[in-house]
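Methods, example record. To illustrate the input and output format used throughout this study, we show the complete record for WG repeat-containing protein. The sequence lines were provided to the predictor; the line carrying structure tokens was produced by it.
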Amino acid sequence: MMRRRLFFVMFLAVSGARAAEPSTAAILSCLSAEAVSSSVTWKALPTEEIYSQDDYEGGFNAIYYLSVQGKEIGYAEKGAVKGILFDHKIYPVDAARALPGFAIRPTELNPYVAEWGTVKDASGKFVCVSFPFGVLGQSGTFQKNRSAYLISLTSQKNARILYSATGNIDLIKTSK
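The corresponding predicted structure is encoded as:
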């Protein structure tokens, strides 16, 4: 009987630490860098003051970061390893979890071209980094091809996961 209780308590602790996964509306809003539904709030992060720091954390150089409400949010590199930084933790982009329906991996992230913000809806609140899909996504009709990284702010710090999504905004809107 004691084992069952212990197992149940452990199960509750583990399930409570699970990171929130963004809704389709939150993902589309992040990719678009604007709210695409009345149920979603998109808020751009202030990019007037941008910082950089060598040997920021674990050998990573913080190439680009913002300080927002006491949290540092940005982009870091350690040789060939690239990562999104949030609250002194580096989330390697190669380890980002592709969101369901978004199997294509994001292209190289240029933090100076990216749109940094937060997206919030019933699924939670997320840091959002939205950027053009490679050089193709920077001109003409290809500007609708976007990539994004999202990190849940509503899950516990140790349960945060970096998510990724890539796609053509117009095609995604019509298929969802």
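Annotations derived from this record:
Residues 21-175 form one domain.
Residues 1-17 have pLDDT under 50 and may be disordered.
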